[in-house]
Fold:
Amino acid sequence: MNVGIIGAGTMGNMHADCCVEIPDLTVSTVADLELEKAEALASRVGAKATAKVEDVLDDDAIDIVAVCVPTPGHRDLILAAAKAGKNIFAEKPLALTLEQGREILDAVDKAGGRLFIGQVVRYFHEYVKLKEQIDAGAVGRVGVVRLLRGGPAPFGGKSWYNEREKSGTLILDMLIHDIDWLRWCFGDAKRVFAQNIEHHGIKELDYALVCIKFQNGVIAHVTGSWAYPGNFRTEYEVAGSKGLLYGSSDDAAPIRTELHDTDAPGGGVAVPELPTLKTPFRLEWEDFVAWSKDDREPRVSAQDALEAMKIALAALESIDSGEPVEL
Structure:
């Protein structure tokens, strides 16, 4: 199957590399409004480059469109790709609002194509193993879960990450990964309460605490940070009736010193280091390809992506109101 990549930034490059590694896929075209970026990626993966999205959408030889643009562009591109009869791989979040998300799912359903949203944490090896341990009752009945995900503040094109109406803050952009994983493990949420640093008038960084109570009684505390000056890191702790499951991406280096460098230029969104034979990003593409070929249901559905959005947006509503939000 031929893949057209729309967006040649950090994630466009990441997904193009995954497609090159999969025998069933060929990256045929890379599109980006900045032609130089499209040409740089296209030359690396042996594809054509263009500055026109239409060159991807109107090409009958392209089977899959990968939407790797900033979040504000997701809705329009996914709808256009669905109308063009393409199968679609899109970066998370699905959209910026529930109305947009429902509109997308309806349009894809009517068009008869496939839509896969990159909720990639379901494919991270340690999170898969953690779920297996939970399901196997390794710590008995789970009561409380604590998750952390954080790194340096990302600076995408025109710093769109810093604008809430474009990124949904780190809650919709980054913590949606942890939220989706929690739903995968514990089902639907009942109530959400959240606070963030933006509420205190601090705009340059982002830091949030989200507390989720699930229908089955499990309580999760999720911390997200775009305030670390150093590497991306994650932590997880699951407390149950028999004990604890816990881990950290920093375990190999338990003591570290990191200082803010105010003179250093900002980079794009941080991507975790992945010292595995197959990265989680490749595994999600393999799952998508298998679904496209033999109709086997993928690990994550577009409806899952919408449900994770509901919780993330409820957290933002809670920040604004100062009150818990019932789901």
